[in-house]
Fold this sequence. Notes:
The structure holds two protein chains of two kinds.
Chain A: H1 25-30, E1 45-51, E2 57-63, H2 65-69, E3 73-78, E4 101-102, E5 108-114, H3 117-126, E6 128-133, H4 140-144, E7 157-164, H5 168-173, E8 177-185, E9 197-203, E10 208-213, H6 218-229, E11 236-239, H7 255-266, E12 270-273, H8 276-282, E13 285-286, E14 289-297, E15 303-313, H9 321-330, E16 340-348, E17 355-356, H10 363-381, H11 385-392, H12 413-422, H13 424-427, H14 429-434, E18 440-452, E19 462-469, E20 475-479, H15 488-500, E21 507-510, H16 528-550, H17 558-568, E22 572-578, H18 593-596, E23 602-614, E24 620-630, H19 637-656, E25 662-663, E26 666-667, E27 685-690, H20 713-725, H21 736-745
Parallel strand pairs in A: 1-12, 10-11, 13-17, 15-16, 20-21, 24-27
Antiparallel strand pairs in A: 1-5, 2-4, 2-6, 3-5, 7-16, 8-14, 9-10, 9-12, 14-15, 18-23, 19-20, 19-22, 23-24, 25-26
Helix pairs in contact in A: 6-7, 9-10, 10-11, 10-20, 15-16, 19-20
Chain B: E1 7-9, H1 14-21, E2 25-27, H2 33-38, E3 45-48, E4 59-61, E5 68-71, H3 76-83, H4 88-95, H5 100-103, H6 108-113, H7 122-127, E6 131-135, E7 141-145, H8 146-149, E8 150-152, E9 155-156, E10 163-169, E11 175-181, E12 192-200, E13 206-214, E14 221-222, H9 224-230, H10 237-245, H11 261-275, H12 293-297
Parallel strand pairs in B: 1-3, 2-3
Antiparallel strand pairs in B: 4-5, 5-10, 6-7, 6-10, 8-9, 11-12, 12-13, 13-14
Helix pairs in contact in B: 3-4, 9-10, 10-11
The complex binds flavin-adenine dinucleotide.
Amino acid sequence: MTPGAHAVGTSPAPWVGRSRPSLEGNDIVTGAITYVTDRREEGMLHGYVLRSTVPHARIDGIDVSAALALPGVVTVVTAADVPVNALGPRDVDGPALADTVVRQVGEAIALIAATDARTAEAAAGLIGLDLTALPVVDGPAAAAAPDAPQLHESGNVSGAIAFSSGDVEAALADAHLVLRRSVHTPAQEHVAIETPGGVARWDADATSVTIWCGSQNPGLHQRKVARALDIPQESVRMIANPVGGAFGSRNDDPMPVFLALLARRAGAPVHVHMTREDVMAAGAKRHPFWTSIDIGFAADGRILGSAVRAVADTGPIITSGPNVMKTSAEMSTGPYGFDVASFDGTVYYTNNANAGAFRGYGVPQVAFAIENAITEAAHELGLDPAEVRLRNVLDGGDRHSLYRHRTTTSLNVRATLRTAVEHPLWAQRRQWQAGAVGPWRRGTGIAVAMKGVGMGSGTGDTARARLHIDDRGHVIIWAGPNHTGQSIQTTYGQVAADALGLPIETIDVRVGDTGEVPESGPTAASRSTYAGGAAVRAACDELVERCRGLGLPLATDAAGVGTKLVELGEAEVNAEFRLPDTDDIGIVPPEQLATFAPHRVYGTCTQVVRVEVNTLTGEVRVPELLCVLDCGTPINPAATIGQAEGGILQGLGMAIMEDHRVSEGIPRTTSLENYLVPTIADTPRMHTLFIEGSEDSGPFGAKGMSEVVVVPTPPAIAAAIRDAVGVLPQELPVTPERMLALIEEAPCM
Amino acid sequence: MTPATPTLLRPTDPADVSRLLAGARAVAGGTDLLVQRRAGAEMPTLVDLSGLAGTRPAVVRDDATGELTLSAVHPLTDIADGAARAFPALTAAIGQFASTTIRNRATIGGNLVTGSPAADTAPALLAAGAVVDIVTPDGARRTVDLADFLLGPRRVDLAVGEWVTSVRVPQPPAEGGFRKIGGRRAQAISFLNLAWQWHREPDGRLTGVRLAMGSVAPTVVRLRTAAAALEAQIPTQDVVDAAVAVIDADISPIDDLRASAHYRRRCARGLLREALLPPSPGERPDQYVTPTTREKNQ
Ligand SMILES: Cc1cc2nc3c(=O)[nH]c(=O)nc-3n(C[C@H](O)[C@H](O)[C@H](O)COP(=O)(O)OP(=O)(O)OC[C@H]3O[C@@H](n4cnc5c(N)ncnc54)[C@H](O)[C@@H]3O)c2cc1C
């Protein structure tokens, strides 16, 4: 049997498909776990980051003398002290510390280490900044203006991506219905429970640094630190967990660099822990988008063509901007198959909050435009909203509407939709509506989404695993992507136990330490279970194969076999999984494959949601939601449901309350008192269902799902609002104020 | 960074409080004060009033007059338990206040002394005609109408060294309620809130109509004009329209991060209209679809 082609269902595996509590769950619940920010080292100093309070200014001078003179202060680091003052290879990656200019409220200007945190903060207040205010680029429109101040030598355009599979306007000319609509989705903050921070320790003899700090990409952070400190990559060790949540925010985070700079200059371990207020100002956000769509339908609801244009604000530095837009481009046709599509997206630099990776990575923004258009088209055409979607669904193996590339056969949007429409939540939508009381109107909405798994074709996306068996028959597996709160090591252990046929207790999985784990890329792009799991599977299969070749009975005598392998010098296995490219790249120019990076494998999801809307106050409540997932084999079903529920709540937050507001370059939502995220009281009763399915290239048939679950929630809520009160919100979040304004503008009840 | 608080005094006898408060500041639930402290407010000595809760009941009802005495130092959870049906608007307000954990700490004293125009216990108390019982630094008592106690945002009629011991309201009528609008269903500062109480006469007329609204003026305010429009009337469509139409006379909302003045005006009308809807069988709990067999098995 080829790796990955393990038949699911025919041989019920003991661990795969069985819910297993996360390995560290007990320690989390009892508070016993030591998160990276809880770590304390002997002789540790406390660091503080001085940040800009203005959005755009020239730095004419920085005077640290008074800060240095404060008793207890050990060192102050400014741009001039950073060996290579850069967060990446390109100018637009931005400096580690602001040197000639600050371009954002919250941008780091200086680092202080002192004997205690209070002194470090006090010292920051003594740093003299000589700043000259510069005009503020307060959004994409300002960035694009002909006389706009240029935030980088390369200009204010951070990236652009355009593609067309044909003449959309010609296709729309024949359409029965053409909708031209614009939507806006807000900047969203991740609100990981643990704010960034950790500890770094400099070893002067070895000229090396060890950093305990959360990261979704320890290898990337290792390279960033090595660059800034101008030391070899091997001299940097990132130990990137346990961490209390990420959702994209530990991808672009400069904190490991700050820690390393401080530890080296101070010659002592240094601890830094950001406040929530610092994160609100300085942490990367979900890109705010302005998306418009022109889409045409035949009378029977079939989509004839669509043109999507998107504009995003990435703030002052590039972080993930153009990559996010790349994902938006691919997903601008939604989970639908039709003949002609185009996309045109531009990402701008501004003096607003920096935006970066966030679960869903550019998909929720464009999906809101498409799904809203489908919802509206269903009403206009007098068709059932689920039926319109079913008529357009992209089936496994179909060609993608924009790039015409071949999708995986495991793609099963149709089954998620069919399962959803049979569920009582959808089937009984009229009864729900009829039960409305007082000013509360009721509605039900449906939306569908798909999202690529992994970095896409042409990118060489690879995950690796290393395995060792000892003379007791115990196995250690070092694997990535890293744990960022989802307890991926628990899942890797299940894959390994079934692949090896060994008791799960004898398998120890280690992640997140660049000193031990082979480079496996980021915890991102819904790739961890799929790619990391497949690498673990490959390592295990190779060990099994090796034992078979040597005639060693691994499953029945692991200790004996381990002893023998150790003797033979054959006890270690290294394996990798390279994510397969699409078989057929369609109309994407081969030399530009990585530019568009179309996916072979997609996770998909349909959601049905009930809402109640108060027509007198504009309040929106979301009491119940169904999520039907196409994720292949759920290796750890409880963990998968947990991912779905968490993602849904982030989608719900984006839909009705979360809005990171910045005006004139100044963040206005500065804490969790005025930036609202859903609480348990706002949490709907959620039902998550898995459809039958298996992805051939994935471990035991699994594929990724943890981003796609965010995507349908906002448009499903919007559709439910449409069903309840007859107006379809095009701007998120739908606060009570926006809702009441919509009801009053268009009273069609 | 949070400034240090070197001294925390925890009296258990009310007679000790005034003496300890000299040069110090009171803390009850700490749910507002600790936030201020984290924001940098210096508080060298704190006197924790929560220990006084053990010395008396949360709510006392005068059997002769029906007057309720509400402790200013008990957690709101205890107040709601003690007042229950005797004060429906306050019980409803506490039900919508913050979250269980905050309600287990926060007090009426802290809520009123904070002087927030959005304070959620204030509308019900104001509508009920509450008076505030204050202990002065020499241990004497003074009593002030809540309407006079609330002076403006973060300003109340309380001198240094004084503390609030209780709040009293004349017997509230059986019909009353409270609604708040926030950005989410818990842990949210009110964009707007409304408390009401009235008697419904056998012929359907409303009498003793008292309305108070928060977050629409520098302090929580009575909606006297709207109440007058309802007084002794049957709340027919026309009467409701007339009452709603005059709300603007008593409110002066502003734009802030949470909501615009325009929304507050619109929503103020909506809230009053909602309060005047014929009494329904009661809020039904969210109706849930039972999980399918498939969900149960997975
Ligand atoms: C997460 C969160 C959610 C919240 N949600 C709400 C909400 O939904 N609605 C709402 O109205 N408020 C809310 N608040 C604000 C706060 O909880 C309330 O104002 C609460 O009633 C304060 O009571 P306390 O006992 O905790 O006051 P404390 O914090 O102990 O004190 C507040 C102030 O009052 C003074 N003080 C306290 N008691 C007395 C007394 N007996 N005599 C004299 N002075 C006194 C203190 O010196 C201090 O200045 C919230 C706060 C938080 C942190």
